[in-house]
Amino acid sequence: MRTARDCGVYAGEEVLLVAMELSSTKWRLAMGARGRVRQVTLEPGAVEAFEEAISRGKAKLGVAAGAVVVSCYEAGRDGFWVHRWLALRGVRNVVVDSSSIEVSRRARQAKTDRMDAERLLNLLQRWYGGEAGALRTVRVPSVEEEDARVLHRERASWVEARKQAGNRLRGVLAAQGVRTEGSIGVWGKRLDELRTGDGRELPPQLRERVERRVGYWVGLNRTIREMEAAQRERLRRAGGEGAAVLVSLLMSLRGVGQQTAWLLVWELFGWRSYGNRRELAASVGLVGTPFDSGESRREQGISKSGNRRVRTALIELAWLWLRHQPDSALSQWFVQRFSGTARGRKVGIVALARKLLIALWQMTRTGEVPSGARLSRAA
Q: Which among 42, 78, 264, 371 is least surrounded, fewest beta carbons within 10 Å?
């Protein structure tokens, strides 16, 4: 249970509440105190202008110059640097989950930066007054924790680019009836052997286009391999210390590879603590969203809120778990309940992903291997 102090209430202190509506072109500040509201517009990242606006706001609203400033802004494109920037200036700031902000149910909604800032200020006032559900805040990672997530996230973007480049290349060749099998890195070295559907060699300009696309794909593939080598080197240097221990622990399970273990640790287990399994599942959107009103009762599926990277990886890992860990208790549970239709298996794989997430979380906490699971040969 959250107490009033958790929500920011400090008895007897004078405070200026500031809601910040951030965009790439301007910052809109809505300041509130003593039942009055003042709004100003600033250039993005204007340090001196921000401090001057706060000082002038305190004077206009009748707040003491030394009053505490409590602010908030929505999590978005500006990331967490604004939060750290405010903290250095003594501002108590919270980052708000944008999807949790209340919205009007009218068919047509008026929306301006002024109105958005004022609504956010109203929610901040309620939250600061002790209403814990008025705002849902985001846990802000440290600079080190945020930096640790760069490598695997960048790799994921390069993998997606490689996939798109490969599909485009195969599409270009398929338009000429050229059949390609295996890796692009293999047949890309033997372009002289490729023939169109009617038996001709590749025309000169098409040949040049294919060579460029092959070279682009090879460059992407080389970059990805370098990133994976950098991951292995970091694990080797870390030895048995820090979060690297958790990565090695998860990799000891058959079916759990380096990328999945790395993702789970640096996105979840290595930098956050969870009170129970419900908090854990909610952080990646693997919780139900029931609709129970009057006589209408139905399940709307999982919430899909939270970390989508981890949620996607867990679904993939669940399928791999069935293949590599068929004798585990989780796989046996899946087979008994969802071995019927294809749709049932798709629904069941989400349930298995949730159970697998909880089991791996327990493993990182206690070292206990999931029931019936087998370790890899390397482990």
A: 371
